[in-house]
Design goal:
With 392 residues, the chain is α/β, with parallel strands linked by helices. It folds into two domains: 173 residues, Flavin prenyltransferase-like (Rossmann fold, 3-Layer(aba) Sandwich); 202 residues, CoaB-like (Rossmann fold, 3-Layer(aba) Sandwich), CATH 3.40.50.10300. The chain is built from 13 helices and 19 strands. Strands 12-11-8-13-16-17-18-19 form an eight-stranded mixed beta sheet, with helices on both faces. Strands 2-1-3-4-5 form a five-stranded parallel beta sheet, with helices on both faces. The protein has a two-stranded antiparallel ribbon with strand order 6-7. A hairpin with a 5-residue loop joins strand 6 and strand 7. Helix 1 packs parallel to helix 2 and helix 3 packs across helix 5. The longest helix has 14 residues. The radius of gyration is 24 Å and the shape is globular.
C-alpha cells in the first residue's frame, strides 16, 4: 500500500518548486495530497497539482465534495508525513500559534504524523527574532525543520532564505518514511558516475553517465542503516546525506580509491561507468586543429571489477552491464568471468533505461537465474538490488 505524503504549499515565490517536488515524490511511489493556502493559488494554479496527483487539490475548508467526510481530519489520518514546502513567515507564525483558519493550518493541527517545515523567505524575515522564535517553538514540539539554503533570493537580496534543495527535502522525507534496519552494521561500497581520461588540458574521453544509479544505491543503503562509502566520478548530483564520498576523476584514481576501501566492505556495488581506455601521455598543451588526421594510441584501463572478483574474501559483489545488443548473453559472461554474486544488466536501447534517465529497466542475474524488473525509478530499483544482494 502506498504511503501518503500531505504537501502544504504557502505563498512563497518558491511555490513553483513544489510542483517538481510533487512529481519526484510520485516517481518514488508515494501518494501525494496537496493543500494550498488561498494566497498560494495566486502563484500556482491548483489544477497543476491535481493533474500530477490525480487528486483534488485542497484550498477551501468548506468546499466539501464528499458530504459525510470531514476532509481535514480525513487527510490528517491518512498522512504518513506532512510537509509544508515552501513555508512562509506567515504560515510558520500561524502554525506556531496553533491557529487553524484555513485548510492547511487546520489539517496540520489535526495531523499526528511526522511533520516537516521547509522555510522560504527574505533573509531579514527569516532572521527576525519573531520568526526564529516561531521556528524554535515548532522544533520543540517535534516538527522537523529543513533549513533554508543561501543564495540570491527572488527579491534581489543575497543570503539565507532560499527553499532547501529538493534533494535535501526528499532525503529528509525518505529518511523518516523508509529507514529500515535491513543493512544495519553492514559496510557498503558503491562506485558511481563516469571517469574522464585526459587527451590534453581541455579535452577528455568520457561517457554520458549521470551517476544517478550509484547515488540511488548509496542513498538507499544509508536509509537501510548501512555505513556507506561512495566513490564518485564527476557528476552534478548532491551527495546523499550521511554518506562518505570520495571524489575521483580518472579510472586509475577510481581503482586506487576502491582498492583502499575494498577489504573493509561487506557489500560492493560497481555502478560506475569506468572508461575502458585512456591516453598514457596526454598532451601538455591544447592539441591544435590541423588538416592532418589525428591518431591517438590508447591503452587499456585496469578492470576494477575483475580485480575485485579475484580478491574476494567475505564480500558480496554486484557488477553492472550496459549493452546495446545480446544483453543477457554478454551479461552472463561478465557475471561468470568477473566472479560476481549479482549482476545488474540493462539494455540501452530500451525506452526509459540507461544513461541520463531517472528510471531504468534492468535484469538481475545471479546463480538462481534471471529476474527482470519493470520500468521504475532508479531509487526503487536500488532498493531491490540492495535487498537481493543482502539476501545472497
Amino acid at each position: 500500500m502506498k504511503k501518503t505524503i500531505v504537501l502544504g504549499v504557502s505563498s512563497s515565490i518558491a511555490a513553483f518548486k513544489s510542483v517538481q517536488l510533487t512529481s519526484d515524490l510520485l516517481k518514488l511511489g508515494y501518494d501525494v495530497e496537496v493543500i494550498m493556502t488561498p494566497h498560494a493559488t495566486q502563484l500556482i494554479q491548483p489544477l497543476t497539482f491535481s493533474a500530477l496527483t490525480q487528486h483534488k487539490t485542497y484550498v477551501d475548508t468548506f468546499d466539501r465534495q464528499v458530504p459525510y467526510e470531514i476532509e481535514h481530519i480525513s487527510l490528517a489520518h491518512k498522512a504518513a508525513a506532512f510537509i509544508v514546502a515552501p513555508a512562509t513567515a506567515n504560515i510558520i507564525a500561524k502554525l506556531s500559534a496553533g491557529l487553524a483558519d484555513d485548510m492547511l493550518t487546520t489539517t496540520f493541527l489535526a495531523a499526528e504524523c511526522p511533520k516537516f517545515i521547509a522555510p522560504a523567505m527574505n533573509t531579514a524575515m527569516l532572521h527576525n527574532p519573531a520568526t526564529q522564535a516561531n521556528l524554535q517553538t515548532l522544533a520543540a514540539r517535534g516538527v522537523k525543520l529543513i533549513h533554508s539554503a543561501s543564495g540570491r533570493l527572488a527579491c534581489g537580496d543575497t543570503g539565507e532564505g532560499k527553499l532547501a534543495s529538493l534533494t535535501d527535502i526528499m532525503a529528509a522525507l525518505t529518511a523518516q518514511l523508509e529507514t529500515q534496519p535491513g543493512l544495519a552494521g553492514r559496510r557498503v561500497l558503491v562506485s558511481a558516475g563516469p571517469t574522464r581520461e585526459a587527451l590534453d588540458p581541455v579535452r577528455f574521453i568520457s561517457n554520458p553517465s549521470s551517476g544517478r544509479m550509484g547515488y540511488a544505491l548509496a542513498r538507499q543503503a544509508r536509509l537501510m542503516g548501512a555505513d556507506v562509502t561512495l566513490v564518485s566520478g564527476p557528476v552534478e548530483l548532491t551527495p546523499p546525506p550521511g554518506v562518505r564520498v570520495l571524489a575521483v576523476v580518472t579510472a586509475a584514481e577510481m581503482a586506487q580509491a576502491l582498492k583502499q576501501e575494498y577489504a573493509q566492505a561487506d557489500l560492493v556495488f560497481m555502478a560506475a561507468a569506468v572508461a575502458d581506455y585512456y591516453l598514457p601521455d596526454p598532451a601538455v598543451s591544447k592539441i591544435k586543429k590541423t588538416a592532418a588526421p589525428l591518431t591517438l594510441t590508447l591503452s587499456r584501463t585496469e578492470d576494477i571489477l575483475a580485480w575485485m572478483g579475484d580478491h574476494k574474501t567475505h564480500q558480496k559483489l554486484c557488477g553492472f552491464a550496459m549493452e546495446t545488443e545480446d544483453l543477457l548473453t554478454h551479461a552472463r559472461e561478465k557475471f561468470e568471468h568477473k566472479h560476481c554474486d549479482l549482476l545488474v544488466a540493462n539494455d540501452l536501447t530500451e525506452a526509459g533505461a540507461g544513461f541520463g534517465h531517472t528510471t531504468n529497466v534492468v535484469s538481475l542475474i545471479s546463480q538462481a537465474g534471471v529476474r527482470k524488473l519493470p520500468l521504475q525509478s532508479k531509487e526503487a530499483i536500488a532498493r531491490q538490488i540492495l535487498l537481493t544482494l543482502e539476501a545472497l
